[in-house]
Amino acid sequence: MTDQELVEGCKAKDPIAQKLLFQKYSRKLMGICRRYTQNKEDAEDVFQEAFVRVFKALATVEKIASLEVWIKKIVIHAAINYFHRHKKHYGHYNQEFLLQPTAGDELILSKLSNEELLNLVQGLPDGYRMVFNLFVIEGYAHKEIAKLLKISESTSKTQLLKAKKMLKKRFKKLESIR
Predict the structure, then answer these.
(1) What CATH number matches the domain at 105-177, 1.25.40.20, 3.40.50.300, 1.10.10.10, 1.20.1740.10?
(2) pLDDT over 70 (residue 98)
(3) Residue 128: count of CB within 10 angstroms of its CB
(4) Which CATH class is domain 3-86?
(5) Number of Cβ within a 10 Å radius of residue 106
(6) Which of 54, 85, 93, 141 has its CA 20 to 30 A from that of 149?
(7) Model confidence at 91: pLDDT above 50
(8) For the chain, how are helix, strand and coil distributed in percent, rounded to 5?
(9) Measured between alpha carbons, how far is 154 from 140 in angstroms, rounded to an integer?
(10) Where exactly does CATH 1.10.10.10 map onto the chain?
(11) What is the pTM of this model?
């Protein structure tokens, strides 16, 4: 079934189309949920909430250019909403930091398995993890992140800087025990 056929089937509340849509995207979307949460249980909550939103939104949406991109946005917003409902926010910082990629970032990432990277990212404090995912993985700008998370741009930049430092420190610790 094509994505358009899946959308039409889901609009018609066809259980086969709904199941196929779920099967087609569930693995990738659960990966996104796991990156944004600290544990599997929270990821499952976000995942379930996101798919409920997807099926509700499909009933009213007119046209979708890319089903995968559209669903991914819903999942990211569900994760952000979950963060707002269940987690405390970190303080705001007024300092501006220029965030330049540091030498060796790509080298560090290439040495990690996907599971190791996921574990390192999940171990970040909530605010750091959200900013890291949105900036590094999803490609959002700090201005967009600030709006989504209801923080200042400088807080977004600061949290990214601190997340990178924390990840590097944890990576070095991981390397020393390998």
Answers:
(1) 1.10.10.10
(2) no
(3) 22
(4) mainly alpha
(5) 9
(6) 54
(7) no
(8) 75, 0, 25
(9) 15
(10) 105-177
(11) 0.65
